[in-house]
Amino acid sequence: MTNRNAAELRTYLLVFVALLALVGATVGVALIDLGPFGPIVALLIAGVKAGLIMVFFMHIRKTTKVAWIFVALGLLWLFIMLSLTMADYLTRG
Fold first, then answer.
1. Rounded to whole angstroms, how far apart are CA atoms 58 and 77?
2. Which of 14, 18, 20, 90 is the most exposed place for a label (fewest CB within 10 A)?
3. Three-class DSSP category at 85
4. Residue 25 belongs to what domain range?
5. Among positive and negative, which fits the CA dihedral 54, 57, 62, 64?
6. What was the pLDDT predicted at 80?
7. Which residue, 63, 55, 43, is CA-closest to 14?
């Protein structure tokens, strides 16, 4: 095994351990009553998990700037759609 492969394996294992820790945090948040902040904390943890998967397992960090622009545009579009959905939900009687 070359040094590069060993470094990649180490990175993947560290990300895997981080994902397992975040799953544990998600379960912990689900078991603890945080009131209205529970879903917010759970969504933040889910966002971090999704970010780790995108950056390391989908190899986004090794791509060109154009790919990063499309990732940012996708996240912007997601934010816009969620904002419009919440605006509609909050204005209903």
1. 20
2. 90
3. helix
4. 1-62
5. negative
6. 97
7. 55
9 and 36, same domain (yes or no): yes
Q: What's the rounded mean pLDDT across residues 68-89?
A: 93
Residues 41, 69 share a domain: no
DSSP 35-80: GGGHHHHHHHHHHHHHHHIIIIIS-GGGS-HHHHHHHHHHHHHHHH
**Separation of alpha carbons 87 and 92, rounded Å:** 9
Report the alpha-carbon distance of residue 61 to residue 32 in Å, rounded: 35
Verify that 26 and 46 share a domain, yes or no: yes
Q: What tens digit of pLDDT does each residue of 51-66 get? A: 999 899 888 888 899 9
Distance CA(91)–CA(57), nearest Å, equals: 39
